[in-house]
Design brief:
heterodimer; A: 115 residues; two-stranded antiparallel ribbon; 3 helices; rod-shaped; B: 613 residues; Sodium/glucose cotransporter; 2 domains; 25 helices; 2 strands; 1% strand
């Protein structure tokens, strides 16, 4: 492990494999959620708003042709919702992760002195 | 009270408010100057970001663009809001955890290279100046139209106001002023839109009113627009991929704007001003929510204005011209060259036979003398039944000046709908708020790029706090003056250069930042090579296409959309070169790991205690 500046040193012992595993879990959860949200982002904006706009325009919602609606209204609503979901979910992931680390802090790993 | 008196009242009151806020939030240290002491609450930062983001172009020009383009106007709506999702998910929280002052800071530290930092500084300064010139111009236009002062005087007043609150309060002053400016601009935008929606459709919510039926004829508004467009030779309003915008170009322009938006330095730095990563995520949400109020309303305003524009012009005779038309004719944003029958004919270019009969034009960048000569020749042409003089319509059509200027849509819509004088005056204050808020954010980026990244990080690392603050203030002063000059003497290519700014941001910053955050493998050489290739390709393509008449050889993609290709090239070059070069140093790896971490496992790096500071 590289020597860290004091301000950058995490509050928990990152050489503890259980901590490393917890951090990995947190990170892969984050990446999974991000990928899902970005796929929805691409489908709503670039997909419904552009690539399939002419097909969707054959359907009407209220007074709007659907493809036109996605390009000028729907995609924006989806974008706002995506960021809201991301903020809510990530704040929960953070809290879970924090709890997990607190638990590990309470039960320190056996020191591997021979390393 | 007259409209003019109302305008003076609103503009004067809003300016007094901005100055009062600036005085109350004046700062004494660099942290306050660059990142508002990192104490801005998430919702307030969201409002400030929204005001920062929504420029004079969003306020004045965007609805007009959509009104002219119809479906294809969605490029701007989706591009500018969709980029926000990328920013919130891929960039904002991580850069906040990284915790320095600027975007070049991140690029320079992550890739351990002063060259990379310098490339980033140059891009940031270029993008910001391009943008700020347009804002100052917007200030001048609003002043000249609503207060009937010279554009130059308007720009100078705007410069003075920005100068005072930006140098006094730095980021802190700018942030709180932007919060006030957000409310001014959103009120000014929503009130007329709601009033018009209610008048036309009986529904006060513009986004719903747009899809409803018209009260007077019982026909759905959008269907009516499509029908009018067909009759008058305009491309369909709701059908995609008509009027020169094919699927590939709409796609590429949207993607360029999205990715370019996510790479805009003046918006990214806003996320440095909040307390922690959690607040950065929330403030991204608040910002897009506040932005969406305007972006969901703009297409509705566009459709309403389009309807009014056609209904109140086409077929009218010189006796019953609408009063808004008479008011705006002096500005050259719209005027009428009659073919002799005394009735306005307003036609689009989609049908060549009808296009020849169009009588509505704009003066664009045509000098007044030349325009007058064209009008005189046109009058002779009519008086002599075509034997003398020249058909001014053909001359103007050839110069691409058919149809009204898009800026008139938002500016004149309240008058088209016969709204009260104070609402029209409110638009002036709103337009100024939009222009000033964006200008101040951009000026701060210029200042921090030069004073922090160039002066402190590269030239004089031993500079004291007072020196750095002083240099920051001096640079902002110079930047205001240069921006003002660009506003008074606009280079003829301002509008094209905006495409350049987005293209560059897309092709340079975005890949470097995203890969820098998410990859632990990519070293400095591949990243810099990617940036250089991305910028080089995008810049040469835009310059070639706009100035040298180069054909759009890259699958017919226009200069506005080429940033998307530049970005892909940047990614491709960086990823292909990566296996050949060493990974980043252990120190950088630790930095990447630390920005991946949420707040809980390690405190956000505070600037005062961070390494190398």
């Amino acid at each position: 492990m590289a020597k860290l500046e004091p301000a950058q040193r995490p509050l928990v012992d990152v050489t503890d494999p259980r901590v490393a595993a917890a951090i990995d879990r947190y990170w892969s959860r984050n990446i999974r959620l991000m990928c899902v949200l970005l796929v929805i982002w691409a489908i709503a904006g670039l997909g419904c708003g552009i690539l399939f706009a002419d097909t969707l325009n054959h359907f009407r919602v209220g007074g709007f042709p659907l493809g036109f609606w996605f390009a000028q209204q729907g995609s924006i609503l989806v974008f706002v919702a995506l960021i809201l979901v991301y903020a809510l979910a990530l704040n929960r992931f953070d809290a879970d992760h924090q709890r997990e680390l607190d638990l590990l802090r309470a039960t320190p790993a056996r020191q591997d002195t021979d390393r | 009270m007259t409209i003019e008196a109302w305008t003076f009242l609103f503009v004067g009151a809003s300016f007094a408010l901005y100055l009062a806020i600036a005085w109350l939030s004046r700062v004494r240290d660099t942290s306050g100057f660059y990142v508002a002491g990192r104490g801005v609450p998430a919702a307030a930062n969201g409002m400030a970001t929204a005001a920062d983001w929504m420029s004079a172009a969003s306020f004045i020009s965007m609805a007009g663009l959509i009104s002219t383009l119809g479906y294809a106007g969605g490029m701007y709506l989706m591009g500018w809001t969709g980029g926000y999702v990328l920013l919130a998910l891929l960039i904002a929280p991580y850069l906040r955890k990284f915790g320095h002052y600027t975007v070049p800071d991140f690029v320079g530290d992550r890739y351990e290279s002063d060259l990379a930092r310098l490339i980033a500084v140059v891009c940031a300064v270029f993008i910001s100046f391009t943008y700020v010139a347009g804002q100052m111009r917007g200030v001048g236009i609003v002043f000249s139209r609503f207060l009937e002062v010279d554009i130059t005087v308007g720009v100078v007043i705007g410069m003075a106001i920005v100068f005072i609150y930006a140098t006094l309060g730095g980021m802190k002053g700018i942030t709180w002023t932007q919060v006030a400016q957000y409310w001014v601009l959103i009120t000014a935008f929503l009130i007329p839109a709601i009033a018009i929606s209610f008048r036309l459709t009986g529904i006060p919510l513009p986004s719903v009113g747009m899809g409803s039926t018209l009260l007077d004829s019982g026909v759905p508004l959008l269907a009516k627009l499509d029908q009018l467009h067909l009759e008058l030779g305009f491309a369909s309003y709701t059908e995609p991929f008509v009027g020169g915008w094919d699927r590939l170009n709409v796609f590429c322009v949207t993607l360029s704007l999205m990715v370019g938006t996510a790479g805009l330095p003046h918006v990214i730095v806003r996320f440095y001003t909040v307390k922690n990563v959690r607040a950065a995520r929330w403030s991204a949400f608040w910002a897009l929510l506040f932005i969406s109020l305007l972006y969901l309303t703009a297409p509705a305003t566009a459709a309403f204005a389009r309807y009014y524009m056609i209904e109140s012009l086409h077929g009218r005779s010189s006796d019953d011209l609408p009063s808004w038309f008479r008011n705006w004719r002096q500005t050259g944003l719209i005027f009428w060259l009659d073919d002799g029958d005394g009735r306005i004919a307003y036609h689009g270019s989609n049908d060549p036979a009808l296009a020849e009969r169009n009588e509505i034009f704009r003066s664009g960048s045509l000098p007044a003398a030349e325009l007058a000569a064209i009008e005189v020749a046109h009058q002779r042409w009519i008086d002599s039944n075509g034997s003398q003089g020249a058909d001014g319509r053909a001359v103007l059509r050839e110069r691409g000046l058919s149809g009204p200027d898009q800026d008139i849509i938002v500016l004149a819509t309240p008058e088209m709908a016969n709204l009260a004088g104070w609402i029209i005056a409110l638009m002036a204050a709103g337009g100024l708020a939009a222009a000033l808020s964006t200008a101040s954010g951009l000026l701060l980026v210029i200042s921090s790029s030069i004073a922090h990244d160039l002066y402190f990080r590269m030239i004089n690392p031993n500079a004291s706090e007072a020196q750095r603050l002083g240099v920051g203030r001096v640079v902002i002063g110079f930047a205001v003056v240069i921006a003002g000059l660009l506003g008074i003497f606009p280079p003829g290519f301002v509008s094209q250069v905006v495409a350049f700014a987005f293209g560059l941001a897309a092709a340079s910053f975005f890949p470097a930042i995203v890969l820098g955050i998410f990859s632990k493998r990519i070293g400095s050489v591949p990243a810099m090579a990617g940036m250089v290739v991305g910028i080089g390709f995008t810049a040469s393509y835009i310059i070639g296409a706009v100035y040298l008449g180069m054909p759009a050889w890259c699958f017919g993609i226009g200069p506005q959309g080429i940033g998307a290709v530049g970005m892909l090239l940047n990614f491709a070059v960086t990823l292909m070169l990566t296996p050949l070069f060493p990974p980043p140093s252990a120190q950088v790896l630790a930095m990447i790991e630390s920005i991946h971490e949420p707040e809980g496992a390690g405190p956000a790096v505070a600037i005062e205690t961070a390494a190398e500071h």
